Every structure is written in structure tokens, then in C-alpha cells.
UniProtKB/TrEMBL annotation:
GO molecular function, one term: cyclic-di-GMP binding
UniProt-listed Pfam families: PilZ, PilZNR
Transmembrane portions of the chain: none
N-terminal signal peptide: none
SUPFAM superfamilies on file: PilZ domain-like (SSF141371)
Keywords of the record: Bacterial flagellum, c-di-GMP, Nucleotide-binding
Protein name, entry field: Flagellar brake protein
Residues covered by the Type III secretion system flagellar brake protein YcgR PilZN domain: 11-94
The organism of origin for this protein: SAR86 cluster bacterium
Length: 211
């Protein structure tokens, strides 16, 4: 797969990892690109000011392509820097990409507060495991039983931007604790009738959590 195969649109968010500070990942947006010449990116801001960047500086770039339904990454160097008409910079056009379609079976462990709505109640729950097709969560109160359905609202941060999605889900597993310490019930949910947008947000979030 080549860079143009990703069919990226201007404005898509990217994650930057400069080799000079490998422990920090910064957010940027794609401005555009000239095939086989350079890619133009918005300069990340620090406290409202453009981040200092040097020509020749090396960095890794990660992104998620909605059109290709795949995560992609590549390494490059800064070619040109400009502050006008706004802070932006050019990087080398990648000869090679590392791509990976996020598999449905891929799961990430996390602690994420969410909202679960049934026919009779709305409960605050804690999602502890998430994939692109389902999740495991803890609830202090009953959300129903196996075979029942509910609406799960998740707020997921992808490349620095929070996305809120409400998903229909079916209860596939239910486990009540014998004691009262901690959450009373653990549920396993399977997501149903995902829209393209919901699926893409989940794929992107799982990918960024894995990396």
C-alpha cells in the first residue's frame, strides 16, 4: 500500500513522535501533499505557540485511514518549515508504509467511564475491556440479563479529539459477585448494527490504545 492509497483528506488528524523526544506523542493535521515530493503538516502547538522544529529532524508519523480502514505509520525527516500564513512544515514523502488493519478480535484493557441506558434506567458503568465488536464492563446495578439489549455511550479520544458514540449492544454474559466489595455485576456485551462512523471510531481508538 502506498501513501496515496490511503486516500487521506485534508484535516485528518495524525500523531507525531519526534525522535528527539520519543516519549512524547504530539497531534497534528494533514494540510496536503505533493506526490513523491512532500507532505504538508500543521505544526503542533505548545501553550498556543508553534512547536520548535528543525530541518532534518527525524520523526515517526501514525494515522488511521477511514477510507482504507487501516492504521498506517512511517518514518521521515523534516524538509521545510514555514510560519506563514500559519505554522506548518513539510516532511519527506514516504517510500514505504507500515499498515495494519485492526482485527475484530483485538482487545485492549482499560478503565473507561461510560453510560448504559436500558428501558428503565441510565447507569454509569466502567468499561474494562474493549474491542471493535464488543466490551466487558462493570456496573453497580442491574442492566438486564443475557439476551437483553441496551444503549452504551462511549467518549473516546482519538489523536487528541474526543468522539462520542452511542452503540446498541446485546448482553452476552452476566456475572454477579458473591460479596459487596467493588462493582456488583460484570457484563459482556456484543455491539449490534454499528454504523460506518461508529466502526471507524472504534477501530481508530483500539489502534491508538495499542500503540
Amino acid at each position: 500500500m502506498t501513501f496515496e492509497d490511503l486516500k487521506l483528506l485534508p484535516g485528518i488528524r495524525l500523531q507525531l513522535q519526534f525522535h528527539s523526544v520519543p516519549s512524547i506523542r504530539e497531534n497534528s493535521r494533514l494540510i496536503g501533499y505533493h506526490k513523491k515530493e512532500s507532505i504538508i503538516l500543521a505544526t503542533p502547538l505548545i501553550n498556543g505557540s508553534a512547536r520548535p522544529i528543525k530541518v532534518g529532524e527525524s520523526l515517526n508519523i501514525r494515522l488511521f485511514s477511514n477510507q482504507a480502514n487501516a492504521a498506517a505509520a512511517f518514518s521521515c525527516k523534516v524538509k521545510h518549515i514555514s510560519l506563514l500564513p500559519f505554522p506548518h512544515f513539510h516532511v519527506q514523502y514516504p517510500a514505504d508504509l507500515v499498515t495494519d488493519e485492526v482485527r475484530k478480535s483485538t482487545r485492549v484493557d482499560l478503565t473507561l467511564m461510560a453510560s448504559a441506558q436500558t428501558d428503565s434506567t441510565i447507569e454509569t458503568v466502567t468499561v474494562v475491556n474493549l474491542s471493535t465488536t464488543g466490551c466487558r464492563l462493570h456496573s453497580n446495578n442491574s442492566l438486564g440479563h443475557i439476551g437483553g439489549t441496551l444503549k452504551l455511550t462511549l467518549k473516546l479520544a482519538v489523536a487528541g479529539e474526543e468522539r462520542s458514540i452511542t452503540i446498541s449492544a446485546q448482553i452476552m454474559a452476566e456475572l454477579e459477585k458473591a460479596n459487596t466489595k467493588g462493582p456488583a455485576i460484570t457484563y459482556g456485551l456484543s455491539f449490534e448494527d454499528l454504523t460506518d462512523k461508529q466502526s471507524l471510531v472504534l477501530h481508530a481508538y483500539v489502534y491508538y490504545m495499542l500503540n
